[in-house]
């Protein structure tokens, strides 16, 4: 939502901006399996606290960065630190709640995270307009440091620490005799785990890339919206994605089946994005409806976390969900710079206030790889096995 500010501040083209956005995902994705292993072996409370503290440091570095390199380092630290949060949350859920609720809780975890991202839409835009992007990020870093303290004081790894019964098949800190690499190998030995790894990136990549970086300039240029209006639409997309996650997860839990919902949602998401990316001049009400509907069906990606968790031994729940979330964020890592590179290759030479402007044909070419990955995800889904909501023992 601060695309123009960053392009102007550091004199960036689309490819360079895409790389700056993607460096967050590089470190985020790289941390997923380590985060799962650490949560399995040391407990999610420690992992979450350390992650929040490092996120605060990275945010402050980005806020005060005087160069592109320092801004990139700040983004790298933020991605690595917050990369532990989702996996640790799911590890906590596997101890505090019954297994039959795991898909719904995965959706709630997504909902919490994405609603945080929605606050980087219109609210962030208004705050940046009023106080500048550096000041807003500095305050955000300070609040994150305070959150690290709250996590350490409040969060507990397992209900048994407070005298309640645990829902986990594995005691806290248990890893069933697996070494670090042995646990990773055992989790990846489950076909569903690595298939979900590949599929999730295709389903999550378009909403993450469109809402996170390229949706606002696309909507401003080709639908005549203001930056605030375009940010509202991308925030609406994220909110739809977030709020649908718990609903689709609960529906999957109730059906006692995972695969049909994942297949249907992925197919509908592919259809929605194809219309948005390839058809120019859509009526604004139709565009809004498509973004909302596509966000809702894209939330089927939450079912993949349940598939991965149920396909690996219970003591490796953190590792398996880490692999799944690594794939989930892979689309957000690969697609922003790839879209930027394609936009630069298809740039007609137009400028507005020193910033490159890309025509619809350039955006169509830039968005095309996301449709290809979505199509591949649908093919791979055919090879997954239904778990029927039962945990591998």
Summarize the structure.
The chain is an all-alpha fold. Helix content is 76%, strand content 1%.
Distance between the termini: 45 Å
Do you know the CATH topology?
Answer: Growth Hormone, Chain: A
Sequence stretches where pLDDT stays below 50 over 5 or more residues: none
Largest beta-sheet details: 2 strands, antiparallel
- The name of the CATH superfamily reads MFS general substrate transporter like domains
Rg, Å, rounded: 20 Å
Approximately how much helix is present in the residues?
over 70%
Annotation, overall tally of beta strands? 2
Question: What is the overall silhouette?
Answer: globular
Overall mean pLDDT stands at 85
User: How much of the residues is beta strand, in percent?
Assistant: under 5%
Task: Describe this protein's structure.
This protein has 393 residues and is mainly alpha-helical. It has one domain: Growth Hormone, Chain: A (Up-down Bundle). Helices cover 76% and strands 1% of the residues. The protein has helices at 3-10, 14-30, 32-42, 44-63, 68-82, 85-96, 102-118, 122-131, 133-154, 180-188, 191-223, 227-255, 259-278, 284-298, 301-311, 317-345, 360-381, and strands at residues 351-352, 355-356. The chain has a two-stranded antiparallel sheet. Strand 1 (351-352) and strand 2 (355-356) form a beta hairpin. Helix 3 (32-42) packs antiparallel against helix 16, helix 11 runs antiparallel to helix 15 (301-311) and helix 13 (259-278) packs antiparallel against helix 15. The radius of gyration is 20 Å and the shape is globular.
């Amino acid at each position: 939502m601060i695309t123009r500010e960053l392009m102007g501040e550091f004199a960036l083209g689309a490819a360079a901006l895409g790389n700056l956005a993607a460096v967050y995902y590089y470190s985020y994705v790289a941390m997923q399996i380590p985060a799962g292993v650490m949560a399995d072996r040391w407990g999610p409370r420690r992992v979450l606290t350390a992650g929040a503290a490092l996120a605060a440091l990275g945010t402050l570095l980005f806020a005060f960065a005087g160069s592109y390199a320092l801004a990139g380092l700040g983004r790298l630290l933020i991605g690595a630190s917050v990369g532990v949060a989702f996996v640790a949350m799911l590890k906590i859920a596997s101890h505090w709640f019954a297994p039959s609720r795991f898909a719904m809780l995965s959706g709630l975890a997504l909902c919490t995270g994405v609603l945080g991202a929605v606050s980087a839409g219109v609210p962030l835009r208004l705050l940046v307009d009023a106080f500048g992007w550096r000041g807003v990020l500095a305050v955000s870093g300070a609040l994150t440091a305070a959150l690290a303290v709250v996590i350490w004081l409040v969060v507990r790894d397992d209900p048994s620490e407070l005298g309640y019964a645990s829902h986990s098949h594995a005691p806290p800190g248990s890893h069933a005799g697996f070494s670090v690499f042995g646990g990773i190998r055992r989790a990846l030995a489950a076909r569903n785990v690595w298939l979900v790894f590949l599929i999730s990136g295709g389903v999550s990549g378009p909403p993450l890339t469109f809402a996170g970086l390229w949706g606002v300039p696309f909507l401003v240029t080709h639908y005549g919206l203001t930056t605030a209006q375009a940010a509202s639409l991308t925030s609406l997309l994220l909110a739809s994605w977030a709020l649908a996650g718990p609903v689709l997860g609960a529906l999957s839990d109730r059906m006692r089946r995972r695969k049909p919902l994942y297949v249907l949602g992925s197919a509908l998401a592919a259809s929605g994005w194809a219309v948005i990316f390839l058809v120019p001049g859509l009526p604004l009400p139709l565009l809004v409806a498509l973004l909302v509907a596509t966000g809702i069906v894209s939330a089927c990606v939450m079912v993949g976390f349940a598939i991965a968790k149920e396909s690996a031994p219970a003591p490796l729940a953190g590792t398996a969900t880490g692999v799944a979330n690594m794939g989930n964020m892979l689309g957000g890592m690969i697609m922003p710079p790839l879209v930027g590179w394609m936009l630069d290759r298809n740039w007609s030479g137009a400028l507005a206030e020193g910033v490159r402007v890309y025509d619809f044909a350039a955006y169509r070419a830039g968005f095309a790889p996301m449709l290809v990955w979505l199509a591949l995800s649908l093919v791979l889904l055919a090879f997954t096995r239904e778990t029927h909501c039962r945990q591998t023992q």
